[in-house]
Amino acid sequence: MPVIFFRDMFTPQGSGALGRRFKGMGGKIRMAVVGVGHFGRFHAQKVKALDGVELVAVADIDRARAREVGDELGVEALTEGSELVGRVDAVSIAVPTVAHYDVAKPFLEEGVHLLIEKPITDAAESAAELGKLAAAKGVVLQVGHLERFSSATLALESRISRPLYIDSQRVAPYKPRGTDVNVILDVMIHDIDLILALVKSPILSIDAAGTPVISPLEDIANARVRFANGCVANITASRVSVKTERKMRIFQPDSYIVVDFSARNLSIMTKGAGVAPSGLPNITIEQETYEESDALEREIAAFVQAVANNAPPLVSGEDGLRALQAAIMINQSLESHREFVRSTGYFEPGASPAVSGAPGESDG
Question: Residue 191 — φ and ψ, nearest 5°?
Fold first, then answer.
């Protein structure tokens, strides 16, 4: 399947590493994976299986885990990513989000191409710095927004023209991993990135609400996002559901599209010409189903292709920064909502909300 690349402000500019000859066996790209926990192990497996790539080593601060994955794949196991500098052309980073910046920066400074898991970092300033550093060094910086590589998403993009309203639901049962950040950066970030890519318009305002349920941070949240072009997106994310569901509904003039990422199918309802015998407009309904595909393998292969061909990645540092900035705006709205709820006294044990006057009117 061909991979289409889009240029952006972080397109490599310098001579850097992109034009050099790779030093792996047979001219292969030398690559390593830093962070081989639950998801990082999958990264390492995919890299090991790719043609044109030599998996040099894996690294993890958990020595036993690094050795386990290293032995499984027959490669060196390290505990410090810094030991890889000078030995690799590219690195996949799958450490916890709070460590992304500190792990990524030294590699970029040495001209190493990076695939970094989503979100790009936990702060907009550090994300922007990584993007600028990658551009200055002339290296690829790709962010792991995995949903962009699903078959359903690739089919969806060709169907979107002028989205006016988007409703997104992404819910799943609770899992302890990923709870170093709230549900916005852990789960909702997938749909934030995808919606930004589909709408292609600046955000005007956000109204969000959420609450912790199991972890100390928000485990469920909803955000209503208004865009400058008039589109509105209603985004819900939960990591405390009893089931897994990943659906997006998109409304645009004369058509309604439903994509089910879990079931890998697409439904398109389009208003046709004329009127049916019932007196209603003629509606054309299309159903498309996609074979199960390995989005992570596709993502890593696209990264390798970008490195090998001196091409910008499908999901750039700028894309990662935009998604992070939107997530931060949602978190700011969550904080405002949290303060409002506190002001009502609703969080006090046994207290009633501090509400007076007509229904819907509060003291604040």
Answer: -75, -30
- 215-270, pLDDT tens digit by residue? 999 999 999 999 999 999 999 999 999 999 999 999 999 899 999 998 889 999 99
Length of the chain: 364
Domain extents for the chain?
25-144+295-315, 151-289
Q: Per residue in 88-137, pLDDT tens? A: 999 999 999 999 999 999 999 999 999 999 999 999 999 999 999 999 99
- In CATH, 25-144+295-315 is 3.30.1050.10: no
3-state secondary structure the chain: CCCCCCCCCCCCCCCCCCCCCCCCHHHCEEEEEECCCHHHHHHHHHHHHCCCEEEEEEECCCHHHHHHHHHHHCCEEECCHHHHCCCCCEEEECCCHHHHHHHHHHHHHCCCEEEEECCCCCCHHHHHHHHHHHHHHCCCEEEECHHHHCHHHHHHHCCCCCCCEEEEEEECCCCCCCCCCCHHHHHHHHHHHHHHHHHCCCEEEEEEEEECCCCCCCCEEEEEEEECCCCEEEEEEECCCCCCEEEEEEEECCEEEEEECCCCEEEEEEEEEEECCCCCEEEEEEEEECCCCCHHHHHHHHHHHHHHHCCCCCCEHHHHHHHHHHHHHHHHHHHHHHHHHHHCCCCCCCCCCCECCCCCCECC
- Rounded to two decimals, what is the model's pTM? 0.85
Beta bridge mates, 206:
225
Q: Domain 151-289 has what CATH class?
A: alpha beta
Please determine whether the domains at 25-144+295-315 and 151-289 fall in the same fold group of CATH: no
